[in-house]
Amino acid sequence: MTQPTDVRGEPLQTALSLAISGAPVLPLRAGKTPFGNCRRCADTACGGRPNMKTHGPCTCPAPCHGWAAATTDPNIISSRIWREAWLSASAVAYHPGGAGLTVVDLDDADAITWARNNLPATQTVPTTRGEHWIYLGAMQSANAVRPGVDIKSTMAYARWLGHGTGTVTALPDAVRALAAKTTPPARTTAQTVTAAAPVGGGPCPHRTPTYLARGLAMAEQRITQATTGVHATVYRTFLAVLAKHGRCGCLTAAHITRLFAAAQTKGETRRHCTDAWSNARTTLGL
Predict the structure, then answer these.
(1) How many whole angstroms from its chain centre is CA 123?
(2) CA-CA distance, 275 to 196, in Å (whole number)?
(3) pLDDT under 70 in the chain at which residues?
(4) Regarding beta strands 123-126 and 101-106, do their DSSP bridges make them parallel or antiparallel, or are they unpaired?
(5) Could you give the CA distance from residue 89 to residue 56 in angstroms, rounded to a whole number?
(6) Across-strand partners of 25?
(7) What are the backbone dihedrals phi and psi of residue 40, each rounded to the nearest 5 degrees, phi first?
């Protein structure tokens, strides 16, 4: 698989050029979430995730979830549904593993310093807050392998941000070892929640305070007991909580902190939690 080339221009032209170079692509909406490419999931109501139990696309007429939708087929990329998406896309994404690549996503200056001291030099692409280090070779993806470090390869997507600098080098064992480590231990202290709680104003369906408490406890349990598809489970749980409790104003920052903490024990980063919460609010119109 050849390395994606440096491409400029409108999203559709960029996507087609990347696909020719062998990089499976998909459009991203604002907030770095994928569009659906079938009407059933056009607004990503399903959470924008593949069916992780089968490690493949969902049962919609065509793959429409995140990395599973990425393709090099120009007929799909130029299809009517995707053409509508490209017109409003905020970015082009690609499936690194499908292109035979691994992206080490460094989210801040400390993570970049760590990489410079511990990983071999390779192609480097600036991001909004950090850098993508791109290596030749695919591996399993993993979130939060170190503070500020995610690995995006198989079953993941990354934004296309240009060619960057340097030459792509072979995927080192040091990166593979990061993903091979055990799941991070549960956090003992809650981090500050940046996600907004609903402001309320709707009718309150809670007959007793225990109704909300029981719902939050069940949501935490659903997340912490997930063995596969953690991303999808977190999103769907957030969606369910907001659908039931999000319109009356009873949810507080303390409740959101509990949900985020449960997700973080499964390896989710605070950024991913915030994105999932925001996407769920958008889906429900909150």
Answers:
(1) 22
(2) 11
(3) 1-9, 31, 35-65, 181-209
(4) unpaired
(5) 24
(6) 71, 94
(7) -60, -30
pTM greater than 0.85 (yes/no): no
Surface-to-core class of residue 271, CB atoms within 10 Å of its CB (0-12 exposed, 13-18 middle, 19+ buried): middle
In whole angstroms, what is the distance from residue 241 CA to residue 277 CA?
10
Helix (H), strand (E) at residue 259: helix 253-264
d(CA 186, CA 262): 8
Residue type at position 228: T
CA distance 266 to 129: 24
> Which uninterrupted H or E stretch holds 164?
none
Angstrom distances, CA of residue 208 to CA of 144, 156, 203, 215, 255: 38, 42, 14, 12, 16
pLDDT in tens, 122-163: 999 999 889 999 999 999 888 889 999 999 998 889 999 998
Distances in whole angstroms, Cα of residue 52 to Cα of each of 20, 56, 95, 112, 216: 28, 7, 16, 30, 24
DSSP character at residue 249? S
Q: Is the dihedral of CA 105, 280, 49, 189 positive or negative?
A: positive
